[in-house]
Records
---
Amino acid sequence: MAELLTPAILLSILSASVGAATIILLAALGELLTERAGIWNMGVEGTMLCGCLAAYVAMCETGSPVAAAGAAMLAGVAAGLVIGLLTVSLKVDHFVTGLGFNLLASGLTLFLFRSYTAGGKPAGYGTIDRWPIPFLSEIPGIGPILFNQHLLTYAAFLLVPLVSIFLSRTRPGLECRAAGENPEFLEAKGISVAKRQYGALLVGSALTALGGGFMMLAFATEFRPDISGGRGWLAIVAVIAGNWRPLRTMIAVIVFAVLDSLAIHAQGVGVAIPYQFFLMLPYAASILLLAVLRTRSGQPARLGIPFLRR
Amino acid sequence: MIAFERRESAGWVAQSVAYVLAIVAGLIASVLLIMIAGADVAEGLGALWQGAFGDAEAVGQSLVAAIPLVFTGLATVVAFRAGIWNIGQEGQVFAGAMAGYWMSMQLQGAPAIVAVPAVVIAAIVGGAAVAAACAVLKTRFEVNEIISTMMLNYIVVYLLSYLLAGGPWIEAGSTAYHQTPLIADNFHLPELYGLHLGAPLALLATAAVAFVIARTPLGFELRGLGFNPIAMRYKGVRVATTIIMAMAISGALSAMAGVSEVFGINFRLRAEVLNGLGYTGIIVGMIGALNPWGTLVAALAFGAMANGALYMSVLTDVPSALVPAMQGILLLFVLGATVLTRYRLRFGRKEGRHG
């Protein structure tokens, strides 16, 4: 363990954590938005996986990170449409839909990936460059950790207050929340619950898939089956543990991200404990977190209950 | 406007129509997928069929491939019927196989009459323990079981990875393959007519689950829990105990899938032979309409598909991953089609929308 505690390694772990947090944070913010509108979307993992594959293919084809991020978000919108069709329009149980969608995404992305690479390996690409912020990144200690990151990392953390303001201060945000708390009231005012839920689901899923896309751009140069590796589930846990509040959700995300990065570094440094035990950490922590943090006061009253118009 | 009206029970006509529609739509989507892969549709589907049912040997292999899916499918039925979202079949399959293997190491040289039952019991205990742990997390600590079971999947899979990748269970001298040495003959499930003991056990399990759900007090409590947990509490049912029982049974069934793969077919433990059995079992159970006999039929179909996929991927340009993709598509169509059975659709004008 002591090998992990040298200043250089610690710095590297924390810096990697902020990057790794971006993946889960984008997904968690997307899920938070969706859940606040009343849709308990369990398809986060699958949506993320769709984003991963879309970004990978777009990157191989165009070499442009912007195109890759766009492709990931489009894949997310498509995923959101499928989930919305089932949950919002057809009133299928939200849990069942999400589980089904994950299984579909796992099989479908694998099939599309194999079909894509069937004619030989694509050219591949390198991970994208960081965008150090001038001056700030030179602050000793926190500079390289916080301000020598990718552009999307800054954007993701900036989204935390923005989502918070959107939900508490803007009209569409309040209408989304009403869809999750009191849909009858919304309908009585002549506002469509379905439209608000679709809106939240499409934007939320696009963010989730962007998280997957970012993972492909910043951490991986090749797609693997089920490459999202449970990060979508960690995002769901972060939302619950964060009591459906953006800032607290972010804190939970950071906990997972640090544990996630610890595993990678433990492997590199050669700690005596087998690396598989480090890999288990985020998942074990998520169970522990839910067992300890049992406040559910922020849970939308009608979360996961299909809305039947009378 | 289309309005939804909930209805109490679905007629079998509506259910059959829904299934036929879903299967047709699923097949059309699969044809589109083969076209995306740039392969010949007739050739691909022909090879899939040939590989699944081409001759007696293929049929036998399809049946063998269906055995673990019957178990994980039934595991889904038991939990989901009680409204418990156990999606930990994958980890419970692994846990069962690992517990069974551990027992086989303890009893080296025991006669088959002792060895086989001991392995089966150990596996059942292992799978049930993992599942019951999640049930306790749910009843005592209010941890959502979807999350705890999913997270334990990752944890258990990593545990096996540790035991095999250079860990204590790896075959001596083997570094390229993460697998245990071959298991001695006395632990193999006995072979019957080209199938192994898992086949009659799977049939037996189907009948047993059907009987328990339909005819026993526990089955009544399970169904009641899925239907209205609050009413069950008022009726004096100890809800926590029922949840733990349901999860333990579900985990034990999943464990049997691990036993049949490791001790019936491969005779050594490695992750590749267990991968996906649990997740496919969720689809099998849901497509089987959470009915034990329906699940048996779905498992037979899925076993055939999995077996045919190997043949197809060798002979044609269609990747074997077509099958999991097809299964996922089929599942979503079946879920969509259940709308037909759960709601009466009312087509009409927009009248009364705001009232």
---
Amino acid sequence: MSLLLLQLFNGISVSSILLLVALGLAITFGLMNIINMAHGELIMIGAYTAYMTQQFFQKYVPEAYFDAYFLASIPLAFALAFGIGWLLETLLVRHLYKRPLDSLIATWGVSLILQQLARTIFGAPNKAVKAPSWLEGGITLTNELILPYKRLFIIGLVALCLVVIYLYLYRSRGGRNMRAAMQNRQMAACLGVSTRRLDAQAFAFGSGIAGIAGCAIALLGPIGPALGTYYIVDAFMVVVLGGIGKLVGSLFGALSIGVLNTAFEYATSATVAKVIVFTLIIAFLQWKPSGLVSVRSRSLD
Amino acid sequence: MNNPPMPDARPRFKRTRPVPAPERAEGALLRAKIALTLTIVALLLAAPYFLSEFRLSLLGKYLAFAILAIGIDLIWGYTGILSLGHGVFFGLGAYCMAMHLKLAASGGQLPDFMSWSGVEKLPWFWEPFASPWFALLAAIGVPTALAAALGYLTFRNRIRGAFFSILSQALVIVTVTLFIGQQGFTGGTNGLTNFDSFLGIKLSEPATKIGLYYAAVLLLGIVYALGRFAVGSRFGRVLTAIRDGENRVRFLGYNPVAYKVFVFAVSGALAGLAGILFVMMEGIISPAQMNIVPSIEMVLWVAIGGRGTLSGAVFGALLTNCAKTYFSESYPEGWLFFLGGLFVIVVLFLPRGIAGLWSDGIRWLSTRRDRHDKRSSDSGRNAEGGASASAG
């Protein structure tokens, strides 16, 4: 029983990271019809920011405050990824609206460049980020059931991000504009929404969330230049499964993929689990081709 | 007398120049194309006489890639479906062939990697691969069947565009993890290697290598000709129509799903064929060659060469791979920068690739020459007109 609970807990913690990664993808894809393959590299940038902050704190900050480095790295990672996302949108992505397949190839080129850049700057071997001491250990429920603080912290962080994103999307003017543009771009533009600026904001915002996800991932294990590629395809599957345009879709998509993946991994093996989950997703799409939750529209071509 | 010179100047202009300029440009383009094709064919046929054995087998591999690129161009350039999963079809073809080569090399014994990973008996699905003909058939059939199945399940539900690309990419991840994970059956990360002979012919002999090279040239020629025929026919027009407006095609009473599934299956088959040639020439196949990066590189060949033209796909595959060899030999670090930069530049500035650049260039040259001729004839005419006016 407790083993089952532990699996469920692990599944949820995997899901929460997937969700954070997928949210940015879902926003850019739903809003701008852009497939951002460089999204994984923004995760990597977030993770390396955590690493850099740790190095900085080790060198220049009194040891008593060292543990605060992780808290400092989260806004930093968001800011850095936000900036790079903004730059990427201004220089490249804005030329590719309405050409989703081209955007996929071009941003994949960017992803290659960023990966090689990270390899040149930080070296190919993985770097380890030491978790702050207040995240060591866990809550012991029973002998077998120990919930590590790290994972609890990540789940909390994701929940916080989710609440902020919800408030932004559904309770603020900017978010309302964004949802309007997602549903009918021309109409929103007619009614005075500056879709141009909205695009840049949304892209940068999604990138920033990826940066936070990178910080969270840095807690779980060593980080390397190819870190993003491990998550990007799964995150895209979340988008495909969850449907586009609603937060709830991504939430359900991430939860089902994360939990199913860990469950099958426990029952069979990691490789077979991937095959089963993929087959299930294809099977599910036979039933609901546009994902779990999607905004209905009558548009055809 | 006050008649403007133009009305009677125009028929005269037409008499001296029976072919209008745009058609002349097309004619020039056609002549340039024929000349280029003949040069390439001659160079390819003569290559064994001036290339070293190593370079020749590299070129042979690129020809195999060109076959695959034609397949990608059919599905992407003509039908508008971007598949990021062609590495899988290529890899499956190569693995099927390699399974036979491995069995042939181990001479009735259990293949070495199986005994290393504790498999004691030849798995059932390995057994039929003892027959070379079955292996060849499977190397084409397995990728075709997988492509048809995936295509049917997704296209039927009108999953398309980026969603399909993502699903095909997930297929890559799934297959690669499966192949790495099932080490006892697939050789794991190392893949299959140490082959010896096919149908009793030693693969390491120089004569075999030249033979394989010519086989690749021949197959590429056949595939290219068939592809030309297909895209020039009514069938090809339906494909282009699906690319440009699928719902309209549906309204016209066609069934786009059948066309798309068929093209996707054909393109999977071509990838399998390329895999066969590759494994015969390279002597190894491993999951690394069907992973995400190679799969997307395959798309890049077509993008660089120019999607929507078969010759573009072939050139793209040859040129990109030559560039890759050159760059990774001289700057191994910089290759990824270069590759990434190419993606961005080609998509932003050259959406029609080298083929587009080439045909635009020929047209521009031809119209420029035309304009030049016209200008000189114009000045002649003006002189004439002036003379007649003064005479009048």
